[in-house]
Hints:
The chain has 321 residues and is mostly beta strands. It folds into 2 domains: 1-38; 40-315, Methylamine Dehydrogenase, Chain H. The chain is built from 1 helix and 28 strands. The longest helix has 36 residues, at 3-38. The radius of gyration is 22 Å and the shape is globular.
Amino acid sequence: MNVARAHALPHFFLRRSLILATVLATTFASLRGADAFDQWTWRGLEAKESFKGNNYQGAAFAKDQVVIVGSGFKILARKESDPAWRIYDAGTQRPVYGVATAHDTFFAVGARGTILSSKTAETWTARNSPVAVALAAITYTDSVFVAVGDGGTILTSRVGSQWLLQPSRVLESLHGATYRDETFIVVGANGTILASKDGSYWLPQTAGTKRSLYSVTVSPTGKKIFVAVGEEGTILTSPDGKAWTAQNSGTTKTLYGIDYGQGTFVAVGAAGTILTSPDGVTWKSRTSGVTHFLKAVTFARNTCWVVGLNGAILESGAFGK
């Protein structure tokens, strides 16, 4: 054998091994990042193709279970350790539109001023409400709850049992609320954005759009980014809740819900739309496998849940696999 060729062979195989390792690492990284948000499983009570079932409007996760609310006057709950859905009586004949968790308790809001709470999701208690208008969303901090709804309604409560009506100084319907670092943000119809430090005194912010905004969230740790979504694919971001910038969502479908988890913003909307972003600026369309109107999204311990109209319930692939 040629001596020079013999010496070159180990280098040749080394180069090929390094190239193969690089290709495999890139491929596995790509698959790992794509698995969770590109693999959605239908979890609805009815067949996906039937378009039957309740119109689900909100979802939240706590105590090892996801809780889903909607128009069926029933509340669904499913533990991570048990794939069977449990159906509980909401204790009201009014539709329920939003749900959140605080202090190991679920809080839900809905039509005609409905406010409910439950420790386990099995039995729900109606709370006194000072209004009779629809309440769309609820959020919380360690010391105060904020619920929002039609006609510029904003309610606050210290412990979630007694609620006070606060002056919002707007008449537009309010659809979403979030909080971080002494800043409440509320969004609503006609591009309405309100900000408050304590939930009692609210100031209007300039959205730069007249399109209705339906949901808002914020990254809970690290760099603070508020993200609001709404009509015709509208996405707005802000570092402080005051200065808002329009982002390119890549869709004209209306977006109804947004949440943050696993280092990712997830927005959902009309015609089965699911978008994800690491920073609120660059968005990627995901394949949901459905054409249902998707209304809300929440993160469980190791998966993401999306709910919507006509019985839509979707669960993402598991993270980290």
